[in-house]
Amino acid sequence: MQIDKIRGPQTDQLFKAILELKDLEECYSFFDDLCTMSEIQSMAQRLEVAHMLKLKRTYDRIQGETGASTATISRVRRCVDYGSDGYNTVLGRLYPELEDGDESSK
Length: 106
Fold this sequence. Notes:
The chain has about 110 residues and is mainly alpha-helical. The protein has seven helices and no strands. The termini are far apart.
């Protein structure tokens, strides 16, 4: 895993802090303090790209709807297919129907 390179007490503290957030408003407040708007938008965009890839959307459609570059889409695709399974874990919890394959035809 790439993240092993930065594994340590500071990263542990960050992830534990995120796990302590109780609702969307707390998330908005914390991430507003922690990140730039551009960083938040980039993370949100990558998650949506992963979601659309799981829905079997084309690169053209993903690029058109999210504004993501083909390089970003390709990087997210590699993570979805061969990464640490983070996207798949989160998307499976947010959209359980993805696990059944029901959404791919929409």
